[in-house]
Amino acid sequence: MSGQVPQASWGVHGLGVHIPDRCVSNAEIAGQYGVDPAWIERMTGITQRGYAEPSQATSDLAFAAAEQALADAEVSPRDIDVILLATSTPDQLAVATACRVQHRLGADRAWATDVGGACAGFLYL
């Protein structure tokens, strides 16, 4: 045994993110919840968030992020084995939103499914 750790072929090889263009501040939403904007920031650490347009689906946002992740990893969609998408806002109840992303990417060799973990979804992945 050489004592060297073999290189893993699995793992996160690239990262991507997509934030919708519309930016909404705490001041814009505080009134509808009857709270002060500073309270939202104090409780969540969030000062603003991106809002998707009504015409944008979760799969649209995930697809844009996936394209960036592929470019970052310098791999082809055909190199992907698994697509796991964590969301509490799927495009619809079935078929999984991950399958829509898989199709749009052309990742025809990948297995795809959603993980309904909401904000904690990354812990499940």
Compact description:
36% of the residues lie in helices and 14% in strands.
Percentage of residues in strands = 5-15%
Sum up the overall morphology in one term. elongated
Low-confidence stretches: none
Let me know the average pLDDT. Answer: 89
Largest sheet: 2 strands, antiparallel
| CATH homologous superfamily title of the largest domain | Thiolase/Chalcone synthase
Number of domains: 2
CATH topology label of the largest domain: Peroxisomal Thiolase, Chain A, domain 1
* Largest beta sheet: strand ordering: 1-2
> Helix and strand succession?
EHHEHEHEH
Describe this structure in words.
The chain is α+β, with helices and mostly antiparallel strands. It has two domains: 20-51, no CATH class; 57-124, Thiolase/Chalcone synthase (Peroxisomal Thiolase, Chain A, domain 1). The chain contains five helices and four strands; from the N terminus they run βααβαβαβα. The strands form two sheets. Strands 1-2 form a two-stranded antiparallel sheet. Helix 1 (26-33) packs across helix 2 and helix 3 packs across helix 4 (97-105). The protein starts with 21 loop residues before the first strand and ends with a helix. The model has no long low-confidence stretch (mean pLDDT 89).
List the helices and strands and how they pair.
Layout: E1 22-25, H1 26-33, H2 37-44, E2 48-51, H3 58-73, E3 82-86, H4 97-105, E4 111-115, H5 121-124
Parallel strand pairs: 3-4
Antiparallel strand pairs: 1-2
